Amino acid sequence: MATNDPDSPAFRGVIAIELRDGAQPGRAALPAKEAGDMATLLGRDLARLVPDVVDCDLALMAAHFDPAEALRPGWPLHRRVLELLQRAPGQAQGARVIGFGADAQGGVPQPLQADAGLAGGGLRILPFVLRGPGLAAAGERLESMLLDTGMASADAALALQDGLEAQVEHVRYLSLHDLLAMMAMQYQNVGLHGLWSLLEAALLTPDDVCVLDAPPEPLARYGDGEVRIALLDPPAWRQRNAPDEPDGDRLERAFTRFLARQRQYAAVFEVHGVPVQFVHCSDGQRDCLG
To answer: Which of 44, 161, 225, 226 is most buried per CB count within 10 Å?
Structure first.
């Protein structure tokens, strides 16, 4: 029997939908019946890979989100799924397969509402969890298999395409750690590997301290649940990043790019739910960040 504690061990996964040409789905969530049908198809596909899945509760939040909404400290999106599962009936009746979707009028309940400010990306995800007596065996095997073998079956992909009124290129199943690895690669490919080191600490080792001290990147520190970014005045920035650069337009442009980089860092952390505090740092030394 599954425990009622939403903090109990669980396998956290997502259905990842790659949208054709980035066109957004017509619906924010599957209707209730289709949500239940999709959860059944998901459970069947996962059990084909790992039979122990049939001994687990499976809960699917059949609304689509930006990947960043799943990759926030404490994994709040998956926590919502676990809380919905906790309140669902039938806990004494064996393993359950439940899909949470839109209400009878087509409205999307608050736990299923995505951040409207993050709409528009070409990849959307639907979170799901597994929990129960089969978890120890199923979770470990799924973690090792899904990235390579987790393509959704044709009928499951079609059900999502029709139910969400979406133009779908690919549908696959990923663990939350697979999604984390994909996002890490994307950030590194656009030159944000320094930022990722701080974000990774916030997500995976939130009690640790991580400092980014690698000019010309912003000077930043993660700790105590927030990121502190050093605000450098022009002389401090110059001493830290361009001590040998002569006065002139080139130096001014470099400082302008640095300020834009700081704003970019802050915006990315905000999307991932990590608070940011700017700290004046007149000498450009890391000690000013605490």
So the answer is: 161
Structure tokens at 97: 């397969």
Length of the chain: 290
CA dihedral (178, 182, 188, 192) in degrees, to 10, reads -90
Average pLDDT of span 116-123: 88
279 touches 231 (CB < 8 A)? yes
The tokens describing 183, both together, are 């996002």
What is the dihedral sign for C-alpha 7, 11, 17, 18?
positive
| pLDDT given at position 259 | 93
26-47 per-position pLDDT tens digit: 999 999 999 999 999 999 999 9
What angle, 0 to 180 degrees and rounded to 10, lies between the N-to-C axes of helices 234-241 and 249-271?
Answer: 90
For residue 210, give the H/E element and its range.
strand 210-212
Neighbouring residues of 75: CB distance < 8 A, sequence distance ≥ 6: 12, 176
Structure tokens at 93: 């009746």
Alpha-helical runs (H) found in 95-175? 135-149, 154-164
